[in-house]
Amino acid sequence: MNQKPKVLVIDEDPRTGRTIKNFLILHKFDVCYAGNGTLGLQRVLEFKPDIILCEINMEPIDGIEIYNVVKESMGETQTSFIAMSRQFELKDIRKYMNMGMDDFIARPVVLDDLLRSIYNRLSKIRKLRNICLNEFNVLFNLSKDGVFLLDNFEITDANQAFLNMLDLNKEDLNNYSIENFFSRESIPAIKEAIQYCSNGSGNRSIENISIQTKNGLMKEASFQVGTCENSAVHQVMIGIVALHATEKATFDIEQSIAEVLIMLKRENIRTSASAVKRITEVLKHQNSNSAVPDCELFSKRENEVLNLSMEGMPTKLIADKLSLSDRTVEKYRSKLMEKTGSNNIIEVIHYALRNKLINL
User: In angstroms, what is the C-alpha Rg of the chain?
Assistant: First the structure.
């Protein structure tokens, strides 16, 4: 952790509470002390500690009630709970363990034992948070919807899907405010939703908003904002933008067209404006989300050569991947052209797409 670990001490005995607080401050902890259960509950929500050290036997709010609030509101990756009591019987320890408490310190407190327990708890928290952070990063990067992190009204990070939607580069995030990402009409509702979430009132969704690309193009979408549960950092707000169905189709087509043009360039084939238009028309009628099996018109090897050609691979790379000679790959390409009445591999691809024989 880059910041000092935060410890909340809840104890009705002010002498013990202050002794523990001063001891932990000497060991570089950020420490908050609450002298009763009511104040302790308030500090739990305000201070958001990593470790809670709590006396069990308090009135009118005891340590068990505080633990239940912590468990419901913060989660196991957020906060570790260490119970204190003058006497722990075996049945009590079993009861608290079944509830999920992390450790138990008998009073009078031995400070070195307490410090050892806290370090052990922090080690566990780090591991759990790292696991959670890795899972979050995977979902963040693989999501097909636009996902971004918020600090109040500033977007601090965004996944590739969000950048693609708006035709942005990662560096653009530093130069744009939230007003640049959404239409003027959508901004008030989006800011209200972010403020609502920031105040701890819950998640908010908006069915219809407009996002604005770098070039000023508007796309219709839905918007959701919420806090990331079990995050490696407290109170991370996440925004999610999902394009409406028609916008998703347009986006996929545009991406497919771009991929085909890149493939043409790699093959050193010049493409006229009319050819680009024909490719675009084919792709607009192509259902890019449906899985299409290998075409029975072509042999297994011919299908392999065709699919690799569509990935933009030149003859030599196809030959290496399939363990064939360059000349053999060219023979398979000739067969593909012969079967489809095409003059080159691009026309083969055009034919296959038009007849839905392959999937881009």
Answer: 30
Pairing of strands 237-243, 146-151: antiparallel
> Would you call the peptide bond into 314 cis, given omega within 30 degrees of 0 as the criterion?
no
Alpha-carbon gap, residue 315 to 268, rounded angstroms: 12
Q: In 3D, which of 179, 145, 187, 137 has the Cα closest to residue 162?
A: 145
Q: What is the mean pLDDT of residues 308-323?
A: 79
Q: Where are the beta strands (DSSP E) in 236-353?
A: 237-243
CB atoms within 10 A of CB 77: 20
The two structure tokens encoding residue 146: 């636009």
pLDDT grade for 31, boundaries at 50, 70 and 90: very high
Positive or negative CA dihedral for 274, 295, 245, 168? negative
Instruction: Determine the pLDDT at residue 234.
Output: 46
As a whole number of angstroms, the distance between CA 111 and CA 84 comes to 12
Nearest residue to 5 (alpha-carbon basis) of 46, 48, 34, 56: 48
pTM value is 0.46
DSSP 290: S
Q: At what angle do helices 345-354 and 273-284 cross, to 10 degrees?
A: 30
Q: 268 or 27, which is more confident?
A: 27
> What pLDDT was estimated at residue 27?
94
